Amino acid sequence: MSRRAATGPPPLGRRPLPAGLLARRVAWRARFVVAAVLVGIAVSLVARSLAPPPPRTSPVVVATRSLEAGHAIATGDVRIARVPVPLVPDDARASTDAVVGRTTAVPLTPGTPVVPGVLASRDLSGPEGTVVAAVRLADATVASWLAPGVRIDVVAASGDSGQGHVVARRALVLPTPRTAGTHTALGVGEGDDSTPVLVAVSPDEASDLAGAAALGMLSAVVVP
Fold this sequence. Notes:
Blueprint: H1 3-6, H2 19-29, H3 31-50, E1 57-63, E2 78-84, E3 131-135, H4 140-145, E4 151-158, E5 164-173, H5 180-185, E6 197-201, H6 203-215, E7 216-223
Antiparallel strand pairs: 1-2, 3-6, 4-5, 4-7, 5-6
C-alpha cells in the first residue's frame, strides 16, 4: 500500500458534523423537554389568571388571650388582626387605643373582636384601683335587693363540700344599666330574671370571681 493511500482522508462516518447540522440535531432531540417547559409555563399563567383575587380585609382589634369579665384591658391584651370585610362586626374598632383602659363586660377568648357590645359602659366605674365585674348570684331575689353603694362579701360554695369561702371582700355594688345593649352585653337574654350584679373589686378578685363562678354557686353577704 502506498504512503498516499495510508495518509488519505478519514472514512466518511468519522468526519465531524458541521456546526449548523449539529445544532439542529441537538434542538430536535430536546424538542420534548422544551415543549414540556412551555406547557408548564402556559398552565401556570392560566391558573394564575383564573384564581380569584385575595379578599379585601379590614383591621379589627381582637383579644390576644382569654380575658375574664371585669378585666381592665391593657396594651398587651389586644392586637390588630386583618379580617375579611364581610366578616367584620358592626362597630369594630381599628385601633387598640380605642379599647385600652376599658373594662370587659363578658369573658373573651383569644381572637374575639373587641366591639362595644362586649365592653362595660363608660359610665360604670368604681373607686381608683378597682375594676367592674359582673357577679351572677345563685339567689336572684337577693340580687334584686342589693342597692348601688352597698358593700358585700361575695361567697363561693362548692357543690361537693357545701362549704363556702370569700372570693371578694367589701365589693362595692354599682348601678346596673337597664338599656337593651348593656343587658345583652352582660350575657343576659331579655326576660332573664338572673341579671348579674355589677361590683367594683380589685383585679385579682375579679379573676377569683370568674373562676369561682365556673366551679360553684355565688352568694352575697352585706357588710358595713
